[in-house]
Write a structure and sequence with these properties.
This protein is about 30% helix and about 25% strand. It is an alpha/beta fold.
């Protein structure tokens, strides 16, 4: 490893990023479990892909994994848009960790199955990885938020109100945030990028008290 790479690794820690597309009232799916109304257009999708490039590992709960594993074989489908082709390659290149007590096996490459969500193991992953880590799915993300592990939030607000469903952000967690970036899109989507202020993150001892959980 080159000296500049060694020095960079010695001073940087991978970020844990929560990224989600939500309705304006904060839901990632409606009361019937549907989310097609949140589908981004090509402009938003291309923007999302650029933010996904620094991600080396995806953390999923079972339901999110079963949705995202579509990308394992998406390249074989006809009529993929340029942004879909791009994201397919990004997803295939990344490592995936699936947290579930009920899933029997994974069906994608570069993927491992974990039965327990261990905050200390995630922190160790952050300390060891060079590329950022993304957590997806409201259940798993809520555990990461509660453990004080999330460093940044990347939210894409769709121009729709659904009135109920699955919340994109956890209840019972209070954090102070700093707005880092924002962007409006022609479709009416709005991107908001916030950094979690360090003073509101939990200590390692507090993380251990969260306990272990899986989905």
């Amino acid at each position: 490893m080159a000296l500049d790479a060694i020095l960079r690794k010695a001073t940087t820690v991978a970020k844990l990023i929560y990224s989600a597309i939500t309705s304006l009232d904060g839901f990632i799916e409606d009361g019937e479990g549907k989310f097609a109304f949140l589908a981004p257009d090509e402009e938003v999708s291309s923007f999302v892909n650029e933010l996904e490039r620094p991600v080396g590992t995806y953390l999923y709960g079972r339901r999110m994994y079963e949705t995202m594993v579509y990308w394992e074989t998406a390249s074989s489908l006809p009529d993929q848009s340029p942004s879909e082709q791009d994201f397919t390659q990004l997803w295939l290149a990344a490592n995936k960790v699936v947290y579930s007590r009920t899933l029997e096996r994974v069906s994608s490459a570069k993927t491992r199955l974990e039965r327990e969500f261990d905050p200390r193991a995630i922190q160790a992953m952050k300390d060891a990885e060079e590329l950022d880590i993304s957590v997806g799915g409201s259940n798993l993300a809520s555990q990461a938020f509660a453990a004080g592990l999330v460093d940044e939030c990347q939210l894409y607000l769709a121009p729709i109100i659904v009135g109920g469903g699955t919340q994109g952000l956890p209840s019972g967690v209070r954090l102070s945030l700093e707005l880092v970036d924002e962007r409006r899109f022609r479709s009416g989507f709005v991107y908001l990028h916030h950094r979690v202020l360090p003073s509101t993150q939990r200590t390692n001892d507090e993380r251990s008290s969260v306990g272990r959980a899986s989905v």
